[in-house]
Design goal:
Elements: E1 2-9, E2 17-18, E3 21-30, E4 37-38, E5 44-50, E6 53-59, H1 61-77, H2 83-87, H3 106-115, H4 128-137
Antiparallel strand pairs: 1-3, 2-3, 3-4, 5-6
Length: 138
Amino acid sequence: MHLEYPIELSPICTRCIVRGMARRIVHQLVDDIDGTELDEGEGETVHFSLNGTAYEIDLTSEHADELRSALAPYIESGRKVTSSAARSTSSRGTSVRKRPARNPEVAAIRAWARDNGHELSERGRIPQPIVDAYNDAH
């Protein structure tokens, strides 16, 4: 929670004179859990996300440590994802990443490669020279 308190300064301040009076706005960081006002350099803003929604919360150092401790077992058991993978997750949390389109001739290419003496695994990417040889033969 950020609160703003206008503080009147001496009218000598030439950078920010407002109708003959200077004003300074102070942003006060306040713990969002218990309302503790934090001095400059105390506490932190913690960013986290859950089910595709990003959050941030201002906390004392103690509350930030409590949050990290509470999440630790889940973080240790979870998998890190890239930001693009995180964006491709639906609101239910299931992956909706698109796979590259599969070549419909894969089975035919594999059969042709075996019949023509090429060493090829049963799964995985077919090397481009084999695909090229298949295309040249057909």
